[in-house]
Write a structure and sequence with these properties.
- Residues 53-113 form the DUF551 domain.
- InterPro entries: DUF551.
- It holds the Pfam family DUF551.
- This is DUF551 domain-containing protein.
- By secondary structure, the protein is of the alpha+beta class.
- The chain folds into 2 domains: 2-47, no CATH class; 50-109, no CATH class.
- Helix content is 28%, strand content 18%.
- The protein has helices at 2-11, 22-25, 28-46, and strands spanning 54-55, 73-79, 86-90, 95-96, 104-109.
- The chain has a 5-stranded antiparallel sheet, with no helix packed on it.
- The longest helix has 19 residues, at 28-46.
- The two termini are 25 Å apart.
Amino acid sequence: MKIFLKVIDKLKKQTQYGEIAEPYLNCKYNKGWNDALEKVEELIASYNLSENWIPVDMKLPPEPKPNHIFKGDIYLITVKKGTIPFRAMWNGEYFTDGFEKLEVIAWMPLPEPYKEKKHE
């Protein structure tokens, strides 16, 4: 979500004349543009990450890619009567923590891992 907000900040038109004189001296396009971006910002801020959960009765993950380390792809899951989501493997048939079959009610893909930025 942070990336979207950063992009919106870069898209905003800077005022050249100050808030009071801007509407009279510059095109009202900039104000309309920035107003629209503010609405987009509000929509992004209102987005609830819990909406990313996919119930298993609606859809299962795709067939896992071949992997020589372990059998399956890793997902974030929620189990029946569980209060904390955790990661588990999907082997194409069921979710497992590596020891037992899990009673999963919803899942979501893991985000991309953090990549450290190189400072110049």
